[in-house]
Amino acid sequence: MHRHIGKRTVLSAATVFALAAGAAQAQQNDPLYRYQWHLMNYGQSVLGDARPAFGVDLGIDDLHDYNIRGNGVVVSVVDQGVEIAHPDLAANVVPDGSWNGLDGSHDPTPVSGGKAHGTAVAGIIAAVGWNGIGGRGVAPAARLKSFNYLDGGGTQEEVWLTRPELADVQVSNNSWGSYANFLPTVVDELDIAAWERALSATRGGLGTVYVKSAGNGFANWRASDDGVDVWDVCNDAINRAGVGCQQSIWEESNGYFNVMVIAAGDASGVRSSYSTPGASIWVTGLGGEYGWQAQGLRNGGYSEAVAVGQLPVRYEPAILTTDLSGCARGYNTNVRTGFRNVLDGDASLLDNTCNYTGTMNGTSAAAPTVSGVVALMLQANPKLSYRDVKYILATTARQIDAGQAEVRDANGTVIAPGWIANAAGRRFSNWYGFGLIDATAAVTRATGFKPLPALLDSGWQRAELAAPVAIGNAAAPARASVRIGNRVGRIEAVQIGLSTDYRHAGTWGNEGGAVPSPLLVTLTSPAGTRAFVLPAHAGYGGDVMTIPFTAVNAFLDEAGDGDWTVAVSDVDLAAGAASAGNLTSFKIRILGH
User: Fold this and answer.
1) Residue 562 neighbours by CB distance under 10 Å
2) Distance in angstroms (rounded) separating the CA atoms of residues 435 and 118
3) Of the candidates 149, 168, 172, 276, which has an alpha carbon nearest to the alpha carbon of residue 219?
4) Which DSSP string do the residues of 232-285 spell out, in sequence order?
5) Which of 201, 208, 205, 189 is nearest to 255 (CA)?
6) Hey, which of 16, 82, 158, 442 would disulfide with 146, CB 3.0 to 4.6 Å?
7) pLDDT in tens, 445-479
């Protein structure tokens, strides 16, 4: 057992007694396990020239030794197709349980050698453990199903809800971020209700646990109008603000009550450089950085020109996981000009099969670390509902980067928060949600967890605005309030929508980019907690500012009844200058018990 950053959790005697039956004795090791710092991090040398900071891991500790490995839990990988015959995955793949939405078969194995994403994600969740090859998954005994949605195979409704292969799926991993990018989409309340009702009805009414990546748009986002000309939507003006170019709130499904949106942390215990922030983030998994080695390649006799002269972040550890088999396809190939670390290529002294990669990263890697931990929780207690799982993960997460600084505009206005503490004592960050997941703490809490009380839903309540309210500067924001009186004693989720007639300057598309919006949007609870819905100077791709629908997660466990106030300000507006737009509507919905 080793110490962790933040709080440290050990298995209780009751948990060990309940779950350790049949615990594995000493078994054959997985030779690449020592490089999987996200599972067990004692500051060892891993792939990448930088070492991980001691204790920055998922908190698996002794769970695997006590046979808490995701036994009996089925996880769907909604992604590019998974190579279901991969030597380190095949034993955990459910026979005929996957679906290829392109040809209707049960084999979604990619045809293209460039489509290794799903296979890498699947390995993070449930690569087979103790079989003498490769590494292992977070839940190395969980069962896997693959749906090649990101290859164009099927609709979101099919791969989340309607395919017969989903009947026994308990966890749905979705390692894709925002298709909306920076453009708000029209969201219908009836559609939201239909989705949430259907998602809640799965797993015999307990609800499948939907885990979804936040995105990789903190500083860069590639866009194209024609599929050929590609440019970075995030310009210097946005990035100088330091609030995050893309925000998680623009993707509709990120706001669904049933979905957990996952940010990424790196091996030093702070936000991964790319991780998209936002008010709808729930918790943080581990996604790492890039895993390149310059020193290692020189010492290994590889070309010195391959991985030298890069930004320091390139040399920080990434996630080691499964890759498409063989050296001719996937992330790890035998093309020496593409070598990134000493695992690459058939000359590698670590593993010469090219069946593994040490450069997987992104919130795409962070989400499956969370899905794996959920599988461990559901082995401990299969009766947990999706609400129970969300609540346990949030309330057992560890605060990382405790010194995360608030961001101020040049005029002194706070335009993005660091960590805030709500009135119920829950700490929340738009970068990390409720913090880095802790597997041992979550499994311990899951064992014997008393289900949350019946769900209470305030329904959508609207502000009564007699006329549009002028958007002033930070000292004179436009405000609108809604009183909630449905006796929601403890909040589990807050959803809002608002509209303005404020028009941005700039263009989107045709090699234009997102506009650094000067609008700051906050939401204040009846208890006085002020959450930042949209930080000023984040990227925006629309014309008229609107936030049709998003979750604002900072208020967990506060009381829902009372006056909720949204405030919209133009932080660039000079004192005494005429307003450039108005707040025209505001609505809010509270869910809890």
Assistant:
1) 16
2) 26
3) 276
4) ES--HHHHHH-S-SS-GGGSGGGG-TTEEEEEEE-TTSSB-TT----TT--EEE
5) 189
6) 82
7) 999 999 999 999 999 999 999 999 999 999 999 99
- Identify each DSSP E strand in 136-226 by its residue range: 143-147, 171-174, 209-213, 222-224
Phi first, then psi, for residue 590 (nearest 5°) are -115, 130
Annotation says 79 is catalytic? yes
Options 76, 172, 364, 569, the catalytic residue:
364
Residue 14's Cβ-count burial label (10 Å; 0-12, 13-18, 19+) is exposed
> According to the 3-state scheme, what is the secondary structure of 296-350?
HHHHCCCCCCCCCCCCHHHHCCCEEEECCCCCCCCCCCCCHHHCCCCCCCCCCCC
What angle do the packed helices 386-396 and 439-446 form, to 10 degrees?
A: 130
Lookup result for tokens 């080793």: 2
Q: Which of 49, 57, 79, 344 is catalytic?
A: 79
Q: What is the CA radius of gyration of the chain?
A: 23
Most confident of 297-301, 334-338, 550-554: 550-554
Residue whose token pair is 């390995």? 123
How far is 355 from 327, CA to CA, in rounded Å? Answer: 8
Give 16's strand partners.
none
Residue with tokens 């989705």: 195
> Looking at 117, 178, 385, 458, which residue is catalytic?
117
Cβ–Cβ < 8 Å for 584, 468? yes
Quick: pLDDT tens for 123-141.
999 999 999 999 999 999 9
For the chain, the residue count is 593
Instruction: For the chain, report the end-to-end CA distance as a whole number of angstroms.
Output: 37
Three-state DSSP state, 530: strand
CB 368 within 8 A of CB 138: yes
What percentage of residues in the chain have a pLDDT greater than 90? Answer: 83
Report the C-alpha gap between 555 and 420 in whole angstroms: 10
d(CA 423, CA 124): 36
Tokens of 378: 């559901």
How far is CA 383 from each of CA 23, 151, 165, 203, 374, rounded to the nearest angstrom?
22, 33, 21, 10, 12
Q: Which two tokens stand for residue 422?
A: 């709500």
Q: Cβ–Cβ contacts within 10 Å for residue 399, how many?
A: 17
HEC per residue, 118-153 = HHHHHHHHHCCCCCCCCCCCCCCCCEEEEECHHHCC
Scan for tokens 């335009």, then name that residue.
Answer: 415
- Of 4-8, 99-103, 241-245, 552-556, the one with minimum mean pLDDT is 4-8
What's the mean pLDDT when you consider all of the chain? 92
Output the DSSP codes for 29-47. Answer: PPTTGGG-TTT--SS---S
CB 248, CB 400: distance < 8 Å? no
